[in-house]
Write a structure and sequence with these properties.
Layout lengths: L1 E3 L1 H9 L6 H12 L3 E4 H12 L9 H9 L4 E4 L3 H8 L9 H13 L3 E2 L3 H4 L6 E2 L1
Parallel strand pairs: 1-2, 1-4, 2-3, 4-5
Length: 131
């Protein structure tokens, strides 16, 4: 089981060659077990990036997310009250980005490593990261 950071999800679906070898291996193994997890906050983050024209998808963002939802090996994890509170109570030092904090709290709650290239998260010791 793994949790994908937002960019890892985008790259996995649209440009898998941007993933590291270790990330690809982890994603492929999790896909076989149908255990790729994505925080619902990542859908919000992608929609926000598209609306700000910082991300361009080949199809409408709603359809892009729906196609990901239909993949049998991906499960979306809702932002529960527990995850929301955990994101506020994460040990410092950690940057204040709320989406990253929720993604980290999701990985911790699920007991799963986080696939990310984000240097701010790679060195964050409470979670195991893969890149």
């Amino acid at each position: 089981m793994i949790v994908l950071d937002t960019h890892a999800w985008i790259w996995f679906i649209s440009s898998p060659d941007l993933l590291s070898r270790q990330a690809i291996a982890a994603v492929n193994a999790a896909a076989k077990d149908k255990s790729i997890l994505i925080s619902s906050i990542s859908a919000w983050e992608i929609a926000l990036l598209v609306s700000k024209k910082r991300l361009k998808l080949t199809i409408d963002v709603t359809d892009w997310i729906a196609k990901s939802e239909s993949l049998p090996f991906i499960q979306f994890v809702p932002v529960t009250n527990s995850i929301a509170v955990k994101s506020i109570n994460l040990p410092l030092p950690l940057h204040p980005d709320p989406a990253d904090r929720i993604i980290i709290a999701t990985a911790l709650s699920m007991g799963a490593p986080l696939v990310t290239k984000d240097s701010k998260l790679l060195g964050y010791s409470p979670i195991k990261t893969i890149w």
